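USER:
Make up one protein:

ASSISTANT:
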Amino acid sequence: MTRLYAFLGLLLAILLALPLVLDKYVLGIFVMIFFYAYLGQAWNVLTGYTGHISLGHALYVGIGAYTSTYLAQTCGLSPWIGMFVGGLLAVIVSLFLGYLGFRFGLRGVYFVILTIAFAEIARLIVSHVKALGSFSGVFLDFNPSFVHFQFRGNVPYYYIALGFMIASVAAVRWIETSKLGKCMIAIREDEQAAQAVGVNSFKYGMYAIAVSAFMTSLAGTFYANYIFYLHPDALLGMSLSIELILRPIVGGLGTLFGPIVGSFLLTPLSEITRVYFSKGGLEGLHLILYGILSILVVLFMPKGVMSYVRRLFGGILKLDTHKTNSGSNAPVIPRKGATPPSAEREQP
């Protein structure tokens, strides 16, 4: 682990120094890399560690963005405080959604439909509420200062987004190694078997969706004060939900560094191809290439890029290559029909 920590420390030092040598455009790409890595990490808490698939996480981004912006424009409340108000509101909504889903045992596509329905309902409501800008959206007044969470240039946003990403890694690492994380992984591996050994799947499912929603909503406030414009289709639409889940899927679902690796691969590709093809009058072509790459990765790397990174560099960095897909020592839950481990079984 010493080599791994040394490697991560070196990467962090490089990332901290990059604003000294990069121009504004490239810094903007790095801001988006950190932003999507953080969002992917937040989504990973629910889907990667418990197996409950959500395609409506844009709902929490929208709650965070609209709540902090509305409180700032009407009450003069700093977005730094409004960010946590939005987080609490997102937790309340997520607990209601989770109660409906987990209480009635909705799994797979049924839980997916539930999450999509909540996000679409929220989008339609916001689109018809005049106080939230309705279909026209909301423009934020530019008041550059730390209190207003608004800055000139990309450098402050770069360091804030980097801080978000690092904090998410620390939080998920703590979850992985705690009882909470081990129970979540047990639910993902086999919910019925986990319940048979005393894991309360409803309780830990509620914990997972609340933490995931809270983390996601914080990113909404960051996005609002980085873009300065809110629109219901952009913040609550299906496209954002799909964007944020692609990073952990490509990088490695249920792994600590999968969302980060996925974001470093997909975000620059998306941005660079978009600009390149737009100059050539081929707007939209980048989405086709982006989709093809995502499909290829899913087909040929079903466990994500992190499984290959672990295989290639596990020896150098002294990684434990025998860990589960989550990267943690998950409790062993016997699968249905599987032969229980026995000390008397002969070794092949």
Remarks:
- The two ends are 32 Å apart (CA to CA).
- Residues 324-348 have pLDDT under 50 and may be disordered.
- Strands lie at 138-139, 229-230.
- The chain is about 70% helix and 0% strand.
